[in-house]
Every structure is written in C-alpha cells, then in structure tokens.
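Residues determine shape. Take a concrete instance:
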Amino acid sequence: MIRRGRTEGWLKQPIDTLPTWATFHGVAFNGVKIGPLPGFEERGSTVIADTDLEGGKVEPLLVIPKELIISRQNIEMFARADRHLREVLEALGDFGRTTRGTKDVGVLNPLTEYIKFLPDELLPTFWSEEEQELLSGTTLRPAVRAKLNSLLREFETLRTATESIGWCARYWWDEDTGMVTFEDWMRVDAMYRSRALEFPGAGDCMMPCVDMANHASGEGTAAIYETDSDGNGLLLLREGKKIAAGGEITITYGDEKGACENIFSYGFLEDAVTSAKVMFLDLDIPDDDPLRPAKIFVSTAAPGFRIFEKKDHIEWESDFIWLVVINEEDGLDFRVRQTIDGKREIQAFWKEQELDTVKLREHLQEDQAWDIYRLRAMVLLQQRVETQIETLQGTQSELREASIREGPWKLAVQLRQLELEMLEHTFNTLERQKLSLLESEAVQRYLGMATNEVDEEVDFS
C-alpha cells in the first residue's frame, strides 16, 4: 500500500468532513470510508474497509455521480452554462480543446470544494534544485527538466490567450489583484498527473474519492475502477478478494510502469520494488555523419531507445536507431523537391525507393545486410549504455545535505541503484547479442571485405 508523495499540511479541509461533502453531492459509500490508515497516518488518506468485505458479495464500494467526474466531456458541458469558462476555452483554442488544456480551468461547482481535501503532491517538479541534482545520471533528470519547460510554455500560453479577457486580467494577471502564479499551474499539473486515471467509457479523468485510493501491484490490488452504463464512476472489490474491517482498499496505477515514471507521476516507489523495469535513453546522430541534418529533418521517431524487462530478460526497441546506423553507401539518399504550393521539402529514399522512415526497420530486415545493421545498432546502443553507467557512477553522493529532505533523498538513491543495475544487465545482454552476430555469415563476409580494404580495426559505430 503506497501513498503518493505529499508535502506536509496542505490539506485545506480536514478529511473527516469529506463524508458531509460526499453525502450532499450524491456520492455513495458502501462499506468503506476515507481517512488515514491507523498506524500509517504519515501516508495521508486512503480508502478503508468499514466492515468485512468480500468481492462478488458487496455492492460497488463507491458510486460517483457522473456530474462530479473531471473529464473533457464534462468540462465542455460546464462551459455551455458558464460564460467565464467558455471565454477561457475559446481563447485557448486548440489547447483548450485537449484534455490537458481543459482540466485546469476552475469553475464554481462541487469540485471547487473537493480539491480542498487533496494533499499537495511532492512530485519531482516540486523538489528543490539541490534535490533535483540528486537525479543527475538518471532518466528522471531530463524528464523533470523537460516537464518544467513544458509547464512554463503552457503557463505563458494561458496568460497570453486570456490577458485580454477583462475578468482574467483583473483576477488572474493584474500585479495587485491577480491571484494566479506559475506555482499554481505546477500544483494543478501535479494534482492531475498523479490522480487522473483512464476509466473505461470516460477516458482520462479525475474521479473524486476514487482518487483517494492508494496503489498496490499484482495480487495486492484489492479493487478495480470503471463506469456503469449511465456514466457514473464505480469502485469495485475484485472477485474473491476479502478485506477485513479496517483494511485498506487499494487500486493499481499501472503495474507495467517503470520506477522513473512512478516517481515522476506519483512521487513514490513501492517498498518491494526490485527493478527499474523500463528506461528510455536519448540518442543522438553523430556530428561527423554527413547526412545528420537531413536525418533529423525527416525523422518522426523519438530520438532514443527504450529498454525494458520481459519475463526474466532485457529487451530493447527503437525506430530511431535504424536511421542513425545506415548511410549513403548502404542505399540511403535524400532529395529536395518542390511542393505544389512552392515550398521545398526533403524526401528520404532507400535504394531508389521513396522511404517512410517509420517503416525503415521493415526495409532493413528484408536486406541481405540486416545482420550488419543490427550489429551496428548493438555497438551504438552498448556505447550509450556504458556512458550512462559511467555518468551514474560518477555523480553518486554518499552524504545527504541538511537542506535535502529525506523523501527525495531516499527516492533518488533507490532510483539510481535500480537504474544502474538495469543498465549493467542491459550492457551484458547487448554484449552477448553482439558476439552472436559476429558469427553471422553476412557479418563475417563484411569483416573479411573490410579487412582486405583497410589494414585497421573495423569501426561498426
């Protein structure tokens, strides 16, 4: 049972007044209550069994009226009746019509009171600079930087789009009377990111009271969430599950999520976690590649590669790597052509055939030099993994400064160790795959040709 990370004392309303709010707004509690788990008060509030419960023999533990769900559909419905909300959404244009854009606009309704029961999430975007430096060498550090930059751009988009609206200028942006700050935007992002769940029939949304449930993976997951035929939110005890009175009702935030994502979105790692599970490492096209500018222009793939656990071994995947490892001598070519409207664009070709770079791997697999391309990829990936290992090992600190809080310190130390172990495992896996490919007939033939042409070691990178 894991409580999302939180700062101390940000609850604006005591949690014991939540039942009054819930009853007034039609939320049904069946054999459960919300509050701190006895003995684990530091974890914050959670959903607790108020009586002995058994899956399949009880009604839904929680029923949330569809009008209380924070979803894109409901935001659009609220906008029809609320002129101020409608003005903001129209000013935001396409951004206001996305789940990300609509979630953050406030309107006087029951949810205005509900958010006062929610704690402030201690996600890495709220860590101090010193605490974020603990993440140097991990995959979380660039993710946090990118997120903060993205939030700043979003905040400026909101300000620019709405500062011409009279009431927004007065209550949001005025130097004397304005109340909206960048920290507010960060706080709402953290609230949404750590509590939004994908509900069947409703998509990504925040479901009051259900979002109080803590996470437990595997067999530890006690309940599931869904919507009924009328669109109301439900929390249901899993078939066969038995929870004694006073026990915690847990849900899953996603068992397949890696350590980095769990800290990034929820601010915690499960106590029993033993693996980083999933990592994404960035990858760049070498500066000395003459086709580098054209490759960057035509690529639509994320510039990196994903390593992940599958059963008891490590696998990797990347669309980008194949564009990196091939060159003009292999059959890659770029041509500039003029479009109908007079603009010029770069088009990729593979062996004289127009190329969709998303399907590049399919073309390479059909090529007789496929093992050679794979070997190049293995070498490049192994070099990148080795660099990441060296960075992690070179930035670790044994001492915790007094200004660094215990929570971020523990999470950073745990993440660093998990990622280091996974990287070392990945390096060894790539080494075995590389040695296996060296026995390939195509590679042997390529090695022989290269040895005859140049009296030096072959560089597969």
Observations:
- The longest helix spans residues 406-437.
